[in-house]
Design brief:
Elements (H helix, E strand, L loop, with lengths): L7 E5 L3 E5 L9 E6 L4 E6 L6 E6 L4 E6 L5 E6 L4 E8 L7 E8 L4 E10 L4 E10 L4 E12 L3 E10 L6 E12 L4 E10 L4 E10 L3 H8 L5 H16 L6 H14 L1
Parallel strand pairs: 1-3, 2-4, 3-5, 4-6, 5-7, 6-8, 7-9, 8-10, 9-11, 10-12, 11-13, 12-14, 13-15, 14-16
């Protein structure tokens, strides 16, 4: 059994359409995935035993990760000219209620993170994200769209750090949380430590019910309110995804979201 100090390492040397981490994790709790340079790969993770995940993206590689787990610690490190799209759909049983995600970017690296907490009953999750920009010409996007029902709770603490003397840095951080039911709780707290001037940074957070006009428009077409809510939230999640994702991947993510609404 691996420990926090001795991760089970997986080295990926060639491009693959789909790498199923569940087939290779072998019930280890701490996994380190090292992706060699100039590789295009899609990784799926539904290995529920993993608590700590490290993804090291080699220079020039293009990585897509579709995750269904909650991690105590998730580290994504992108080398020069690499990119990663990380999509996390949360909605099944949650054994961990606090997740920390750290994204480290080096020159010409790009990261797009989408987290979809679709929680119900007594599920509770607090998510901390940190976007660390250590080099120039980097970009990171963190989008969180959640739907809370019954007495579910979700909170997001977002941190953005940019080192001094950098240029051409682009950062986006947005949280959108919908809720239904008087016992749900949601919060979002952005924080910044930006030491460079040439930075394009935008952030936003919105928490509330599904838009009533959108609901009304769908109900006028004969769609029940509960179904209309799910349609709106599903569409909002899908809008967050990278337009460059293939139709097969988008369809896979879409079905996973629908299954949890």
């Amino acid at each position: 059994m691996s420990t926090l100090h001795e991760p089970y390492s997986i080295n990926i040397h060639s491009s693959q359409d789909l790498y199923d981490l569940n087939e290779h994790a072998h019930h280890h709790k701490h996994i380190r995935i090292m992706i060699e340079h100039a590789i295009a790969i899609t990784i799926r993770d539904n290995a529920s035993s993993i608590e700590t995940l490290e993804i090291i993206v080699g220079s020039g590689s293009q990585v897509i990760v579709i995750a269904e787990n909650v991690y105590r610690s998730l580290l994504i490190r992108c080398a020069m000219a690499s990119s990663i799209t990380f999509v996390q759909i949360i909605g099944s049983s949650i054994s961990i209620n606090h997740q920390r995600l750290t994204v480290c970017l080096f020159e010409h690296a790009h990261a797009k993170i989408c987290i979809f907490p679709l929680l119900k009953t007594n599920q509770r999750l607090e998510c901390v994200t940190e976007q660390q920009h250590s080099s120039s010409v980097t970009s990171s996007v963190v989008r969180i769209v959640g739907y809370l029902k019954d007495s579910a709770q979700f909170g997001h603490h977002g941190m953005i750090t940019v080192k001094p003397l950098l240029h051409d840095v682009e950062i986006l951080q947005k949280t959108l949380l919908f809720f239904s039911g008087p016992a749900t709780k949601a919060w979002a707290r952005p924080c910044f430590d930006i030491a460079s001037k040439d930075v394009h940074c935008s952030h936003g957070a919105a928490i509330g019910h599904v838009d009533q006009q959108q609901l009304w428009a769908l109900q006028m077409r004969g769609i029940e309110m509960s179904v209309a809510q799910r349609l709106i939230i599903h569409a909002t999640c899908m809008e967050c995804l990278d337009e460059k994702l293939s139709s097969n991947i988008r369809d896979r993510i879409s079905s996973m979201i629908i299954a949890r609404l």
